[in-house]
Amino acid sequence: TTLENWTQTDEYFNSFLLSEDPVLDATVKNNEKQGLPDIAVSAAQGKFLNLLLRSINAKRALELGTLGGYSAIWLANALPEDGEVITMEVSEHHAKVAAENIEAAGLTNKVKIIVGRAIDALEKLEPTPPFDLVFIDADKPSNLAYFKQAKRLTRPGGVIIVDNVVRQGKVANLGYTDPNVEGVRELVQAIKTDTEVESTVIQTVGVKGYDGFLYAFRK
Ligand code: SAM
């Protein structure tokens, strides 16, 4: 199968299961207009995160890697009125575009964007109140550092998702050694003996190609 086939299949199921959302469409358009890279989660993946938050009755979510706020909007839409998404972004331009999109979505009071290197902000973040879900989707070489912080900040029974851990199969092919691939390997190596989480990786295909995510349950 090919990207064309995966895209057709995403479109097929989305036509039954995802409603039209002018706000999310406007976000995608604005991101493109402002020159952001096309690396946000897909609509189906955004909805998956949204449903996951609702399933665990989440009130607070933390995201590393805001880009234009597309996934942050999916997350925020899953939370109650008094819920909160904190999302961290190093690029001032990305953060500015995200702020525009979040404003247009009417979600300004649910989403807080922290601009700067995620690790710096994370180290300062207090674990109270804890997060129900952490979505790690920033620079991949820092995956393990982010995961350690995520564990500190997530309530027992909460979930940590790490995106893009399959990388078209490159992570499992030891011939590849680029820093993004190594960032994932370092993470799973550490999780192997980590007694604070129980984890699995799900490979995915779709409009965004072949990749996958790590799902960790915080014990
Ligand atoms: N979660 C977004 C979505 O689905 O809409 C996509 C995030 S994109 C894959 C990764 C983002 O992480 C980029 O916007 C990039 O600027 C940001 N980033 C890279 N290094 C970072 C760092 N050290 N701290 C915070 N953000 C970083």
**Low-confidence segments, ≥5 residues, pLDDT <50?**
none
Order of strands side by side in the largest beta sheet?
3-2-1-4-5-7-6
Could you tell me the strand content as a percent range?
15-25%
Terminal-residue CA separation: 38 Å
Q: How large, in whole angstroms, is the Cα Rg?
A: 17 Å
Main sheet attributes: strand count, strand direction, barrel closure: 7 strands, mixed
The topology string of helices and strands comes to HHHEHEHEHEHEHEE
Q: Helical amount among residues, as a percent range?
A: 40-55%
Structural class: alpha/beta
| Oligomeric composition of the shown chains | single chain
Globally, the shape reads globular
Overall average residue pLDDT: 98
> Any ligands, ions or cofactors bound here, and which?
S-adenosylmethionine
Tally of helical runs:
8
Number of strands: 7
Characterization of this structure:
With 219 residues, the chain is an alpha/beta fold. Helices cover 42% and strands 24% of the residues. It contains 8 helices and 7 strands; from the N terminus they run H-H-H-E-H-E-H-E-H-E-H-E-H-E-E. The chain has a 7-stranded mixed β-sheet, sandwiched between helices. Strand 6 and strand 7 form a beta hairpin. Helix 3 packs parallel to helix 4 and helix 6 runs parallel beside helix 7. The protein is globular and about 45 Å long. The mean pLDDT is 98. It binds S-adenosylmethionine. Keywords: Methyltransferase, S-adenosyl-L-methionine, Transferase. This is O-methyltransferase. One of its GO terms (biological process) is methylation.
